[in-house]
Amino acid sequence: MIFTNDFRLIPSDFWMFHYFDDLFHDAMDKHLPIYKLVSLMEKILKRNVQLLPFLIPYNIEDHFFCSAWRRPENYLDEIFRKGISSFANAPRSIVDSSVERLKADLSSGKWEKRYGEMLNLLQYDCGYRFLVAE
């Protein structure tokens, strides 16, 4: 069993794309699309590989890139971001400008006006998957 992600599976209107687009594209450039990974695993293992979605609950306590999808204010916290490789490995200037835009939109109410419906969801599909060899 492997736990991985493919951000290509996330709906294009997901709010994090608006603020952290460069980080998403960097991750997508580095990682194979999940269906290519599955094909490669099946070829190597000579077994079927099943994809099981991991829908992130709104109150998950772990910290990874999309874990605070319903708590955007967490991304303003440098300590929160330091434990996430997408932020830690990105150029500081890109992270700072992205966080400043998010902060301004949260303060002005623009984020809630645009993405507030997310606050009603209990879980969200951010492209994380379990790959299970059968």
Give the SSE layout:
Blueprint: E1 2-5, H1 15-30, H2 34-45, E2 49-53, E3 56-57, H3 78-82, H4 85-88, H5 92-108, H6 110-115, E4 123-124, E5 128-133
Antiparallel strand pairs: 1-5, 2-5, 3-4
What does it look like?
The protein is α+β, with helices and mostly antiparallel strands. The chain is built from six helices and five strands. It has helices at about 15-30, 35-45, 80, 85-90, 90-110, 110-115; strands spanning about 1-5, 50-55, 55, 125, 130-134. It has a three-stranded antiparallel sheet with strand order 1-5-2, with helices on one face. A two-stranded antiparallel sheet has the order 3-4. The protein starts with a strand and ends with a strand.
Short description:
45% of the residues lie in helices and 14% in strands.
